Amino acid sequence: MRVLVISDIHANLTAFETVLADARNEWEYVWCLGDVVGYGPDPNECVDLLKTLPHLCLAGNHDWAALGRLDIRTFNPDARKAVDWTRDTLTAENLAYLEALPTTFVIGNYTLAHGSPREPVWEYILEPLIAALNFSHFETSYCLVGHTHQPIIYEQMDEQGDTEAVAPVYRQRIRLNGHRQIINPGSVGQPRDANPDAAYAILDVETNQFEHRRVPYNIKAVQARMRKFDMPERLISRLEHGW
Ligand code: ZN
Fold first, then answer.
1. CA 10 to ligand 1 center in whole angstroms
2. In which band, very low, low, confident or very high, does the pLDDT at 42 lie, cut at 50, 70 and 90?
3. Which structural domains are found in the chain, ordered by start?
4. Lower CB count within 10 Å: N or C terminus of the chain?
5. 212 alpha carbon to ligand 1 midpoint, in Å?
6. Ligand 1 centroid vs 112 CA: distance in angstroms?
7. How confident is the model at residue 95 (pLDDT cuts 50, 70, 90)?
8. Residues by chain with Cβ below 5 Å of ion ligand 1
9. How many CB atoms lie within 10 A of CB 40?
């Protein structure tokens, strides 16, 4: 089975549709690593589209924030404003969908979490040391995470647990090599690695072949919708800079 691995759509329908068009018929199933909503202008449209696909989806911190499950006083003011707007905009049916999302999933040789296997909703794996501490918190060879909005592979190099960060090589299929890895496909709807293009990945779970991808999308169209809804300017401009 080939899997379309996506994360952090963040209510950006244009980016989501562009990823689906780019990946065409190269997958049979979708693994979505959470944060379907939050920040962007299309929360219902993104949940509705996801629901039409054969998929499993995990809960992210922004999904929980929209449900009122989190204390959002730790969010910055722009993020808070986006959370309030998202909560008011989501239909009861789509809130119920988000409500039912699990925080982790184990399927074959893959563990899935939004943030990390240790703290599935919260923890950011932003450096090899944090990744190294997480390998004892899952049993499969591979773990897929999102949350940081940065595509990367953390690889355990030896028995001592030394871990290295491997930068993604886009549009190049790699065979996962048996070393334990924590892999981030990047963010569909709000990349934060100084590259504004939508990020996703294709994984063949039979052959363990994995491919990071980027695809440009119509950012201006998304920004226009955000302005229409009077969303914070900082959230609007960050899309074109990829941070
Ligand atoms: Zn996110």
1. 7
2. very high
3. 2-241 (3.60.21.10)
4. N
5. 18
6. 15
7. very high
8. 8, 35
9. 30
